[in-house]
């Protein structure tokens, strides 16, 4: 009985990985003409939908837990988005180790342009 349960879990896990890979590939293909990948979009989307309290900004550290990237990979991705003029980084004055990140006008506009493409890719791969 335990072997059957284990085999079902293993099969379900592989199904999840297959859907994940297929979905990322679909998003990457849809966003490639805009110079974005799935992870790039996720950062833009989180920043676009984040609603920090008045006067607060989004800390990079807060994004790490919401994305499936290491701290260093996220830092490199944000540096690339900043180089492309899509986000701005600033240091936290209270904690010099902290870094804030926010969308620029260009980043917000690009996010709005590609959002329907990303959502359509999700619908194609995850829709009922």
Describe the structure.
The chain has helices at residues 2-31, 38-49, 60-64, 71-83, 105-126, and strands at 58-59, 87-91, 99-103. With 128 residues, the chain is mainly alpha-helical. It has a single domain (2-126), classed as Orthogonal Bundle (Arc Repressor Mutant, subunit A). It has a three-stranded antiparallel beta sheet with strand order 1-3-2. Strand 2 and strand 3 (99-103) form a beta hairpin. Helix 1 (2-31) packs across helix 5 (105-126) and helix 2 (38-49) crosses helix 5 (105-126). It is flat. It starts with a helix and ends with a helix. The mean pLDDT is 87.
Which characteristics define this entry?
mainly alpha; 128 residues; 3 strands; three-stranded antiparallel β-sheet; Arc Repressor Mutant, subunit A
* Biggest sheet features: 3 strands, antiparallel
Helix content: 55-70%
Identify the CATH class: Mainly Alpha
Q: What is the correct CATH architecture? A: Orthogonal Bundle
Q: The CATH topology, please? A: Arc Repressor Mutant, subunit A
State the fourth-level CATH superfamily: Winged helix-like DNA-binding domain superfamily/Winged helix DNA-binding domain
How would you classify the helix and strand content by structural class? Answer: mainly alpha
């Amino acid at each position: 009985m335990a072997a059957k349960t284990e085999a079902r879990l293993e099969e379900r896990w592989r199904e999840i990985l297959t859907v994940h890979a297929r979905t990322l590939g679909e998003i990457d293909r849809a966003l490639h003409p805009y110079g974005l990948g799935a992870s790039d979009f996720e950062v833009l989307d989180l920043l676009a939908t984040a609603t920090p309290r008045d006067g607060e900004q989004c800390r990079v550290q807060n994004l790490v837990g919401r994305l499936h990237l290491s701290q260093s990979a996220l830092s490199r991705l944000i540096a690339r988005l900043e180089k492309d003029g899509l986000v701005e980084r600033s240091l936290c004055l209270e904690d010099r180790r902290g870094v804030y990140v926010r969308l620029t006008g260009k980043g917000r506009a690009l996010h709005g342009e590609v959002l329907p493409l990303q959502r359509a890719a999700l619908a194609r791969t995850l829709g009922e």
